[in-house]
Amino acid sequence: MLIWDNHICMPIRAEAEFLPQLKRCRRAGVGMVSVNVVFDLIPWQEGIRVLAFMRDWILRRPDEYVLVGRVEDVERARAENRLAVAFDIEGMKALDGQVSMVRTYYDLGVRWMLVAYNLNNEAGGGCQDTDSGLTPFGRQVIDEMARVGMVVCCSHTGERTTMDVFERASGPVVLTHSNPKALVDHPRNVSDAVLKACAETGGVIGMVGFGYFLSDGDASSENFVRHIDYAVQLVGPEHVGIGTDYVFDGQELLEFLTNHRELYPEEAGYVGMPQMVAPEQFPQIVDALLGLGYSDADVRAVMGENWLRVARQVWK
């Protein structure tokens, strides 16, 4: 079974302290991960440094990892019992106002990028801000992403901007790490209308494993699967996946939460260290889905095949 976690977070710094923990993903049966390299809070120059460092670290370990360029690399890594790794960007500030940066990031291994990270930027509105919609710059970026083969993501993005993206995009749009607002009314979660509209583009909604966005803050496998099942019942198993957002460096996470309340206000529930769905829970998640009566084909779709389908449709 291909298990594809479409969003995990290594430290946003050019240091190797936590990168060996990628082995945890492989030991848990994961075949493909997307690793965040920069988000709107971080200067884009630092993101380039982190991306260069992570690429070098992975390429120096060809017996364990495959740096993903094409869909075939995911399948090759799976056949050779290696972990496939790609990268992602959370927010279009990383472009520094330059549309041509999309191609550069794609060539360096970035396979999806979201529009805005909680707050508005020059491309569009964030989910915790006064969302004024997709901007002319944002529309140019969406078009360029389609041209080069980068997947558009609307997690962390405001609903008005998200709907604008769905209308603008020519192919599947995804929500790599967003949960149903019907289960937990948090600004980071998304409405049923957004879930349905995402599916209508042919996209996939990845369930996020952060306790802030899960019922009762509970990151148990059973509760996580409850959120998966809600989405599946609403839009079908072919449009649901996993993007745990697991953060390997808890200390860095706490520092971001404490020092940047504009992004993580306490009144929105960003208090203390959240429970998180960890890589080691993937076997339990598979068992829980089977226990709900999911077919083998549907479990395979949710655990990874849906992301693979989008990659085949979009990557170039």
Write a compact overview of the structure shown.
This protein is α/β, with parallel strands linked by helices and 316 residues long.
> What is the annotated CATH architecture?
Alpha-Beta Barrel
Q: Cα distance, first to last residue?
A: 24 Å
Strand content: 5-15%
What is the global morphology? globular
Classify the secondary structure makeup into a structural class. Answer: alpha/beta
CATH superfamily: Metal-dependent hydrolases
**Unreliable sequence segments:** none
Helix fraction?
25-40%
User: Can you count the beta strands?
Assistant: 10
Q: What is the domain total for the residues?
A: 1
Radius of gyration: 18 Å
State mean pLDDT (0 to 100 scale).
Answer: 97
Biggest pleated-sheet summary = 8 strands, parallel
CATH class: Alpha Beta
Count of runs of 4 or more consecutive helical residues: 11
CATH topology name: TIM Barrel
Element order, helices and strands?
A: EHEHEHEHEHEHEHEHEEHHH
What does this structure look like?
There is one protein chain. The longest helix is centred in the C-terminal third of the chain and has 19 residues, at 296-314. The chain has helices at 22-27, 44-59, 71-79, 101-107, 136-148, 159-168, 192-200, 221-235, 250-259, 282-291, 296-314; strands spanning 4-9, 32-39, 65-67, 83-90, 110-114, 151-153, 173-174, 205-207, 240-242, 246-247. The strands form two sheets. Strands 1, 2, 3, 4, 5, 6, 7 and 10 form an eight-stranded parallel sheet that branches. Helix 8 crosses helix 10 (282-291). The protein has 316 residues and is of the alpha/beta class. Helix 4 (101-107) links the parallel strand 4 (83-90) and strand 5 (110-114). It has eleven helices and ten strands. The model has no long low-confidence stretch (mean pLDDT 97). The chain has a single domain (4-314), classed as Metal-dependent hydrolases (TIM Barrel, Alpha-Beta Barrel), CATH 3.20.20.
